[in-house]
Every structure is written in C-alpha cells, then in structure tokens.
Design brief:
Blueprint lengths: L4 E4 L2 H19 L1 H29 L7 H19 L1 H26 L7 H20 L1 H27 L1 E4 L10
Antiparallel strand pairs: 1-2
GO cellular component, one term: plasma membrane
Pfam family, one: DUF308
Keywords: Membrane, Transmembrane, Transmembrane helix
Length: 182
C-alpha cells in the first residue's frame, strides 16, 4: 500500500502564510536585527540541545549510551555559550561559512556543467551567480556580516509564506490534481 501526498490549501495555511509574509517584510525592514536575533536563536538552540543530549546520555550510561554523544553534547553547549556571549563573532563565523558555501557550490556547478550538455547553460549561469555571491560575501565580510544572515532569513521566510498561500502543505491521502483515482 502506498501513501500519496497531495498539496491542499486550508484556511490555516493561508493565515500562516500571510503571517510569514508579514514577518519577512519586517525582517527586510531591519536585516541587522534579524541577523542578531537569528544568531542568538541559533546559540540558544545549540545550548539547550547540547544540555539535553548530555543529560540524556548521562541518564542512560548504564544502558550503553555512547561517550561520543556526551562529547557532542558538551561541544554543543560550549558552542551555544560562545555564540550567546559573542553574537557578533557568531554572525561573522556564520557569514564566513555562508560565503564559502556559495563559492564552493558555484565552482561545483560550473565544473559539473561540462558533464551535462543539456543543462550546461543553466548550470554555468547558476554557478556564476553563486560564485559571484561567494566572492562578494568573502571580500566584504564586515559589511556582509551585518545583513547577510538577516536577508537570507527574510528571503526564506518570504518564500515559505508565498508557498503556503499559493499551494498549501503536503497532506496524506487525496488525489493529486490531474490524477485519476485508482
């Protein structure tokens, strides 16, 4: 028996989508604040996740819990504390990682364009855009740190909101549009 997923839009989807669009507009209004809030949220998430992981593995030590899980939890706690105490350095580090990922994905797309002749043009263009973004972020690290994470978060929130309003969420069951029931 296979389960089908169909996209159906409900009133709840539209309401949440509109709220996400409004939140994205607020984030676009102050991307520096969105960067700081997202960095602090990431720090607190790492801290709480690490503490829960350490507590969980210590409580299950007799049942064969791994010491590597405990070590991973400790690393998350330290990372979370560091980011919470130094949100500017946390944002700088995340921006450096984002710039490196843009640069790397651009290079990989451009290199893989030669292996796929039918998609070569699209891969080269998207690779050049990613490469350009990576170079821009890495060469303007101080400026990019202030707004990049907030801007990326606002763009992602806007896309999620528009998607919810336009097509809703995937749900189990139902017949997809254009498909005949069996």
């Amino acid at each position: 028996m296979t389960t089908t997923l169909a996209r159906r839009r409900t009133v709840g989807d539209v309401v949440v989508g509109v709220l996400l669009i409004v939140a994205a507009m607020v984030m676009f209004g102050d991307v520096v604040l969105a960067t700081v809030v997202s960095t602090l949220l990431l720090g607190w998430t790492a801290l709480v996740s690490g503490a829960v992981l350490v507590a969980r593995t210590l409580l299950r030590m007799r049942s064969g819990a791994s010491w590597t899980l405990t070590l991973g939890g400790v690393v998350l706690v330290v990372l979370g504390l560091y980011v919470i105490r130094n949100p500017g350095i946390g944002a700088l580090t995340l921006t450096l990682v984002a710039g490196s990922l843009f640069l790397t994905s651009g290079l990989i797309r451009m290199a893989s364009a030669w292996a796929s002749p039918e998609l070569r043009g699209l891969l080269v263009v998207s690779g050049l855009v990613s490469l350009g973004l990576g170079v821009f972020v890495l060469l303007n690290l101080t400026t990019a740190t202030l707004g990049l994470l907030g801007t990326l978060l606002a763009i992602q929130t806007l896309i999620e909101g528009v998607t919810l309003v336009a097509v809703g969420r995937p749900r189990r069951g139902g017949t997809p549009r254009g498909a005949e029931p069996r």
